[in-house]
Design a protein that fits this description.
6 strands; about 130 residues; alpha+beta
Length: about 130
C-alpha cells in the first residue's frame, strides 16, 4: 500500500490527467484507434457499459468497431483523479451527455505499462431518477 506521501504525486496526476483528457477527446470524436490504444491489450481488461459487459481487449475492440455512435458532446461535471504511487490510478467523472435526460458516471482504473498508461478496467453507468 502506498504511503500517504505517494498519493497524488503532482507529476503523476498530471500524466494521468493527460491520458484522461486524451480519452475524452477520442471518445467524443469517435476516434476508435485511440480508444483501442488507451485500453490495455490483455484478456484481463474489462469494460462495463450502460448496456454491455465486455471482457478482454478483443471484446472491447469489437464493441467499439461495431458501434455507430459517431461524434457527440457531453459536459463533464466533476472529475476526480487519484494516483497511488507512480504506477496505479483511478479517474472518476460525472457527465451529462447532450440530448440525454439522465446524468452518467464513469470510472477508469489505469496502470502504467511499458507502453504508457493504459485503462485496465472501466465502468459507465447512468443515474436513475430519484424519488
Amino acid at each position: 500500500m502506498p504511503e500517504a506521501h505517494e498519493i497524488n504525486i503532482p507529476g503523476i496526476v498530471t500524466e494521468v490527467r493527460a491520458v484522461f483528457e486524451r480519452y475524452e477527446v477520442a471518445l467524443t470524436s469517435n476516434d476508435v484507434a485511440t480508444l483501442e490504444e488507451l485500453f490495455w491489450k490483455a484478456p484481463q481488461t474489462t469494460r462495463y457499459g450502460v448496456g454491455e459487459n465486455l471482457y478482454g481487449w478483443d471484446e472491447i475492440s469489437d464493441f467499439r468497431r461495431a458501434r455507430g455512435t459517431g461524434a457527440f458532446s457531453r459536459k463533464l461535471m466533476r472529475t476526480v483523479i487519484t494516483t497511488y504511487g507512480r504506477d496505479f490510478a483511478t479517474a472518476n467523472t460525472e457527465y451529462r451527455r447532450q440530448g440525454h435526460a439522465l446524468p452518467g458516471r464513469e470510472t477508469k482504473t489505469l496502470l502504467r505499462t511499458p507502453d504508457g498508461w493504459r485503462i485496465v478496467s472501466a465502468h459507465v453507468s447512468l443515474l436513475g431518477e430519484t424519488v
